[in-house]
From TrEMBL:
InterPro entries: DUF1853 (IPR015003). Pfam families: DUF1853. This is DUF1853 family protein. It comes from the Bacteria.
Amino acid sequence: MRDQADSYQEQFHRRWRHLRRARVRALAWLLDAPDLLDVNDPGWHGKVGTLGPVTPEVAQWLADVDHDPSALDAALGNRMYTRLGLYAEKLMAFYFEQRGILVAHGVQVRSSPNDTVGEFDFLLDAGPGGVEHVEFATKFYLLEGQAARRFDELVGPNLADTLGKKMRKIVDQQLELGRHPAARAIVPRPVVKAHALVKGWLFYPLGTWPAIAGISAQHCRGFWCALDEVHGLAGDAFLILPKLQWLPPFRAQSATWILNRAELHAELSAQFEVNQSPVLVAVVREQPGCVEEVERGFIVPNDWREKAAVRRMA
């Protein structure tokens, strides 16, 4: 585990400790977290965008929303979110709408009633001459192997995709949607620019922190290890994070489900017998009046490496 004095968790706690509500903390993370991708890397050919730093005005707005979350609660509705990506999109839609720049969100483009060409994540006001297409993604990938050739060794925890596959789809297909004749027929103004906005966390084999070209040097990061390697983790207080708590570093007044190392191993061993999905765990510290995340990482089944290697080579 790296020195925690300069970790992203410490930075986030210092900046946003005053926010109490989980939804507002998640929105603060989406706005303030470092971009996952290096927007200045020439390999992205200008296709990657950024929100830029959070201004004092936006910081105050977040504090106001935390004090009175009624508008945010109304925007999210009463539904129980199970998809982290949809939850993050709804939070971003609320932010863009509150800024007064949201033209449309989740606009499907069809070439016929039964043929969907694609979907615009966000269309934002770019002035009277056009709109800006923002393709938004919040992703979590584990580095499987020693290098990230074309980002295909950055693998999703459930082996469903890779960062390379995701970005090729975004750049080659989704960001070209505005050029499709069917899109031009339904978009209120021409799409004058398009880029990807990518937030997330990358996880590296325990004890390693490699630099990867094309990835922001400041990106949010954690570790991953196999179940039988949990003895090598620093700390002795752990929380299993539900999926909707994957975005910002965990912080709460209390947590009754804190596990020690032996309990963590036993709990995950039982889980992996019925469900092979890797589990995101926060290393936490207990302080007067709160429990705070110090570090985070995925614990994977003992055969995950072999399965990931086979999946990547397929």
